[in-house]
TrEMBL record:
Residues 8-100 form the Alcohol dehydrogenase-like N-terminal domain. PANTHER family: DEHYDROGENASE, PUTATIVE (AFU_ORTHOLOGUE AFUA_5G03930)-RELATED (PTHR42813:SF1), ZINC-TYPE ALCOHOL DEHYDROGENASE-LIKE (PTHR42813). GO terms for molecular function: oxidoreductase activity; zinc ion binding. It holds the Pfam family ADH_N. Its cofactor is Zn(2+). Coiled coil: none annotated. It comes from Haematococcus lacustris (Green alga). InterPro entries: ADH-like_N, ADH_Zn_CS, GroES-like_sf, NAD(P)-bd_dom_sf. Keywords: Metal-binding, Oxidoreductase, Zinc. This is GroES-like protein.
Amino acid sequence: MPGMQKGDILGHEFMGVVDEVGPDVKNHKKGDRVVVCFDIACGSCAYCHKGLHSSCSTTNPSGDQEALYGLKSGGFFGYSHLTGGYEGGQAEYVRVPMADVNCLAVPEGMPDEKVILLSDILGTAWHANEMGEVGPGKNVAIWGAGPAGRVILIDKEVYRLEYAAKKVPGVETLDYSKKKVDAELRAMFGDLQGPDVCIEA
């Protein structure tokens, strides 16, 4: 991964129990169970005010990403110094800057394995569906059988396709290493010439 340095800690999806808070933290206290957003937002810049937290203009001090791609994102936990050099969640403790913006309190009784999806994957899937205007009556094809997918999953990893078929009622799967995807999709949807929306997960 570009921008990695010796000693960097990976892990952008995590949750935990608050051990200590700084003087500016008002919404969380020691002992609170929280899930942490993978992107780091200040909550007060123009991008944050528009709800575009991953584009926060204040949390990524690196100029390298902008030099490579023309623009830069906000800071991200556990990626590299291209996204601010913030240590990730594969550690015993993690410092979460601007915790009132970047932590979400977890209600009692919600299991970790469901809550952790809020840190990245659920938001990613939701965003893709919003951008694709997915809704009732739409035909959807999804490349990449991660936990975000439903309807028709396309992948070459047999274990992912088998898992999805067992866990998601009515899901159809395509193994692109064995079948020509465009022809299969056209055959599935007949006169519609394929799906209404395609998502790369």
